[in-house]
Specification:
The structure is a single chain. The mean pLDDT is 94. This protein is an alpha+beta fold and 343 residues long. Helices cover 34% and strands 17% of the residues. It is globular and about 55 Å long. It has an 8-stranded antiparallel β-sheet with strand order 2-1-12-11-10-9-8-7, with helices on both faces. Strands 3-6 form a two-stranded antiparallel sheet. Strands 4-5 form a two-stranded antiparallel sheet. The protein has helices at residues 4-18, 58-71, 93-96, 100-104, 133-142, 157-171, 175-187, 224-227, 233-243, 249-257, 318-322, 329-339; strands at residues 24-30, 33-39, 52-53, 207-208, 214-215, 230-231, 263-265, 268-270, 275-279, 282-291, 294-301, 306-312. The longest helix has 15 residues, at 4-18.
């Protein structure tokens, strides 16, 4: 079995050399033991408790919230939107039949982005910051799908935003508070939040473009379930531990519900929020993100009792990839593959 700290350094070396100004926090949980490193090609490495924007990694937590509500018998995976969103907002009967499971597996048929995203003045550096509850409500009232769901798998940022909104209504709390009370507190995830507090702000790392230019943080006032969370490598390792069976039993049972592959998605399959790949004959569950000047990877291999977290404050581009600068998905999956080799 590879030594975790050596594995973290070896598999992230190419990324760190390609993005010399990027601050990277890399972590492994192996049989419940955590290893976290702060890495940087040029300059002082980040502290291991640095706070990063999670971007699309938020989606696995939105799906986890759905599972926690199902475990608590407050929801069903086949609960339709018509039971979660008032008729005054969701007027179309076909749209109302979209289920929680279809939203969490990206088979709802909802478009990737809101069709009315550009209906109000937009800040290119914060592309969702202007998308208000009012615009979201206008979309819901005007949404009339041509065909009923389920539809073939297609990533929908909007769909995860709709799911977060629907779950918040069922929980009777806003999205961030629902996750805090039902998931983060029970798992001891004290540094994970939808809104960075004054206490956490000094540890928050600003995002950057692929070339290292600072960019403002992205905000998601109407669609927090799609990208609003912030966290640390240590907190995400606690979350992975719960997915690997360590933690409060009802939470562990709920998270287990998110793991089963439910739909085909090209060469991979989809669980609830998770992508499920076959690596060396075993299931690996993972999610990656490139959003708002940050890149992230979160994944685990149940057979190895291991998980990997990679968080960086630099974006990524196709041009960067052509120059040999790869996003964190590749080293993340490679680490999990090596952890599956055994002793």
């Amino acid at each position: 079995m590879p030594i975790p700290s050596e594995l973290l350094q070896a598999e992230t070396r190419r990324y760190v050399r390609g993005y010399r100004s990027a601050a990277l926090c890399a972590g492994i949980t192996l049989r419940g033991e955590h290893h976290v490193l702060g890495l940087k090609g040029k300059g002082t490495p980040p502290p291991t408790d640095a706070v990063f924007s999670l971007g699309a990694l938020t989606e696995v937590f939105t799906a986890a919230l759905a599972a926690v509500l199902v475990e608590g018998q407050r929801l069903r995976l086949d609960t339709p939107l018509s039971e979660l969103i008032p008729r005054a907002l969701l007027v179309d009967d076909v749209a109302g039949r979209i289920t929680v499971e279809q939203l969490a597996t990206h088979t709802s048929g909802l478009p990737h982005l809101p069709p009315n995203l550009h209906a109000a003045p937009q800040n290119p550096e914060d592309p969702f910051g202007h998308y208000s509850a009012g615009l979201f409500g206008e979309f819901l009232r005007g949404y009339h799908p041509e065909r009923p769901s389920p539809r073939p798998h297609a990533e929908s940022f909007l769909g995860m935003g709709v799911l977060g909104h629907a779950l918040s209504r069922r929980a009777g709390l806003n999205y961030g508070h629902a996750l805090r009370d039902l998931l983060f507190k029970p798992l001891g995830m004290v540094d994970t939040t939808a809104r960075v507090s004054d206490e956490l702000l000094p540890r928050l790392l600003s995002g950057h473009t692929a070339r290292g230019k600072p960019v403002p943080p992205w905000t998601f006032p109407a669609l927090p379930g799609a990208g609003a969370l912030h966290s640390t490598a240590g907190d995400l390792l606690r979350f992975l531990d719960a997915n690997l069976g360590r933690g409060e039993p009802s939470i562990v049972r709920a998270l287990g519900m998110t793991h089963a592959p439910r739909v085909e998605a090209g060469p991979v399959r989809m669980g609830l929020g998770w992508t499920v790949s076959q690596v060396r004959g075993h299931d690996v569950l993972w999610r990656s993100s490139v959003m708002g000047g940050s890149v992230g990877f979160l994944g685990f291999a149940p057979q190895a009792d291991a998980g990997v977290v990679l968080l960086s404050n630099h974006g990524w581009s196709l041009f960067a990839a052509l120059r040999g600068r790869v996003p964190l998905e590749a080293p993340g999956l490679e680490m999990l593959a090596r952890l599956l080799t055994g002793p």
